[in-house]
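Researcher: Please translate sequence to structure tokens.
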Amino acid sequence: MNSQSSAEQSLEALQDIKRMMERSSRFISLSGLSGVSAGVCALIGAWVAHGWITEYYNRYLEVHGYVESERYGFKWKLIGLAVVVLVAALGSATLFTWRKARKSRLPILDHASKRLAINMMIPLAAGGFFVVGLLYNADWYYVAPACLVFYGLALVNASKYTLTDIRYLGLLEIALGCVSMYFPHEGLYFWTAGFGVLHIIYGLIMWWKYERT
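Model: Translation complete:
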């Protein structure tokens, strides 16, 4: 009886050590609801953008051609919408992650979170410069594929420093971005699927797996 109790205590001690090592090397406060909120923001943004695009093309049919000043302004209007969606998604994701960290009594800013941020920002920064280059050269068709691919690479690169499940989301984003390269006129739909639908599905799975109890 004593030997069994001792074995159980040793097992619990090993599990405690494992949890401590995981907390010190990985940022585990990432909330599944962060993914859901980011996905909802993306869906709302896509819905607004779809309405604007439909209105713009109806205007194009009315005047039998593009008005250059309207076209230039419309591009910046879409860029502004993308910035608003990004800020809203990051803000809501940060809020839910902060709430989870507070509930778990874990710091949101520690060595692991800094490594996570750095390794995620490298592909995102490269992707940002690449997308700006596309916009500068008026090559709008491949903006959505580039966003999906570089974002997926950022998730895969960051998965070493947080929940490994995020790696699968990254791989799906990369695959979706590669497929969308062959459907350049459907970029908004692929963008919606990647940043909206996949985020929501991933977030719900993570919440059910790690936070439901």
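Researcher: Any highlights?
Model: Residues 12 and 116 are 29 Å apart (CA to CA).
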